[in-house]
Amino acid sequence: MKKYLMNQSILKKIIFRLPLALFLSSVIMGGVSCSKSSPIKPNIVFILADDLGYADVGFNGSKYYETPALDNLAKHSLVMDQSYMYPTCSPSRTALFTGKQSFRTGVYTVPVLEKGNDQENIFSRWTVEKKHQIYAEPLAKAGYKSIHLGKWHIVGPYPEEELKKTFPLTEKLTQPDPGDYSWVAKHKTDEIMQYYPEGRGFVKNVGGTFRGDPAFEEGGYKSHTGGYRAPFSNPFIEAKADDEWLTDRLTSDAIEFMDQNKKGPFFVNLHYYAVHRPIKNRSPKLYEKYMNKEGDTITGQGIGKRKETMAGYATMVESVDQNVQRIVDYLDENGLRENTIIIFSSDNGYNGGQSSNDLMRGSKGYIYEGGIRVPSLINWPGKVLARRTSEPVTLLDYFPTLLSVAGITDYKGQLDGNSMTDLFEGDSELFAERPLFWHLASINKHGTCSVIRKKQYKLIQFLATGNLELYNLQSDPKESNNLITENPELTKELLDELVVWRKANHVPLPPNASMLY
Fold first, then answer.
1. Secondary structure percentages of the chain, helix, strand, coil, to 5
2. What is the chain's alpha carbon radius of gyration, rounded to the nearest angstrom?
3. pLDDT > 90: what percent of the chain?
4. In what order do the strands lie in the sheet with 204-206?
């Protein structure tokens, strides 16, 4: 993928101009001209759901799950119809925060999910080293007051031990069991806090730790609260008298922070734990609504033997939607809407045990479309043209996009994506023509692989065997027809480009795949 380059023409379009009266005043008085003035920086609200699938929202066709707030927001937003993440949360969040491909950070999957030995894997890191800046850091230097709320997952449970290890590891990393709080005291020391939000550009952290789900308490998923119902067991969330539901609480704290910093600019990094397992019903009333609701035979949502699970999941989806509306309402009521960009997305595809999408192959953990394609939108009244785009975008594009909208032009770090401001007013050849790459060097749902997606085609090379799969995503979104036999020329062309990319970037391969170089 091309390195990020600031697009000056788009930047000029999105930066607020001085009001006319102020401009005339500056001219009359011989003051500073528009070109030398400091533009008003927009507020940024980045909402990330966890494990929310592409088809789990109404604006992408769901007839079972109800997301009226998101659907209405989508009508006034740029909806990215082909928006991609990694198949699991750790590499997605690391790449999102750093703007870097997984091979640069060494985070390939959730460490505790890895399968196999050190000859089959490059075992994943967990803690993102400080040499990899995250997007909150340049935003802080540019004057943003930033808060992180919810899932963090870019620090390990034992970072001081992890970072002393020799990489590549011979054994995968581990985590403490639910109910084990022996790590907490250490994580509240300066030594470890440098890897937490407050050490990485945020002024406050609410609920972010190493864990990928909210069920800290003994019993984990099987406990009554599951981390979603109060009292919350997260040691990085201070109890409040009105605590009831985690998603509500995180939103309330986000609104409180915006209210305290409404003069701006502020950055709200609201990364919900929902709708990650455990599945907990938001309320009996909502649960009954979905249990009595007709399912969707096209996607498989709300039907079959997992009806009860999907009904519970549906209550969590609706809760996220309701809380998105609370954010929008606050911005509207306080006159902040037009100077605030809202981004909404998910960190990977739906979890196959709690939802369904029969229109795509795979789910969370798989490199197929159901595992990596997610619902995404960008909303900014008057700055982003409301429409749907089919241009492929990737999680690596968010970091440079945030730099663009914040007017930051001097960032020197490595970035592997492109600013999506190029899409704010129309499609761009840059996005239509560029290849997208994935590299999964550890085993989770399937073997290690490298992937290239270019135009409508996706080529997967499984590293242990060298086996290839080629799909036309435009005509075959279910990836059911492998085209390598009938289209050998295109297969070779894409494979050559994939190998060149790996060589040029010194992408490491697991020991059992070394012959592929």
1. 35, 15, 50
2. 23
3. 91
4. 204-206, 145-150, 266-271, 43-49, 340-346, 377-379, 78-80, 387-389
The stretches of 334-373 forming alpha helices (DSSP H) are 369-372
Q: Following DSSP, what letter does each residue of 396-465 receive, concatenated? A: GGHHHHHHHHTT-----S---S--GGGGSSS--HHHHH--EEEEE-SBSSS--EEEEEETTEEEEEETTT
Tokens of 23: 């401009």
- What pLDDT was estimated at residue 41? 96
Task: Examine the pLDDT at 310 and tell me if it is beyond 80.
Answer: yes
pLDDT for 11 equals: 39
Which uninterrupted H or E stretch holds 70? helix 68-75
Amino acid at 43: N
pLDDT at 9 over 70: no
Which residue, among 122, 83, 88, has the nearest Cα to 106 in the 3D structure? Answer: 122
Which residue type occupies 356?
S
Tokens of 323: 């809380």
The whole-angstrom separation of Cα 481 and Cα 447 is: 20
pLDDT reported for residue 32: 31
Is the per-residue pLDDT at 25 higher than 70?
no
> In which band, very low, low, confident or very high, does the pLDDT at 146 lie, cut at 50, 70 and 90?
very high
Q: With contact defined as beta carbons under 8 Å apart, do 332 and 340 qualify?
A: no
Distance CA 448, CA 425 (A): 38
* pTM assigned to the model: 0.92
Single-letter amino acid code for the residue at 502: R
**Cα within 13 Å of Cα(22), Cβ side:** 9
Alpha helices (H) along 275-393: 284-291, 307-333, 369-372
CA distances, 86 to each of 8, 101, 149, 409 (Å): 29, 10, 21, 28
Q: Residue 140 region, left (φ>0) first, then alpha (ψ -120 to 50), else beta? A: alpha
What's the token pair of residue 67? 């997301």
* pLDDT tens-digit map of 446-475: 999 999 999 999 999 999 999 999 999 999
Tokens at 214, concatenated: 């909210």
Query: Closest by alpha carbon to 206, among 148, 140, 272?
Result: 148
Per-residue pLDDT reduced to its tens digit, 482-505: 999 999 999 999 999 999 999 999
- Rounded CA separation 336/254 (Å): 14
Burial 16-53 (b: 16+ CB within 10 A, else e): eebeeeeeeebeeeeeeeeeeeeeebbbbbbbbbbbbb
Say yes or no to pLDDT of 517 above 90. no
SS3 343: strand
More confident site: 377 or 6: 377
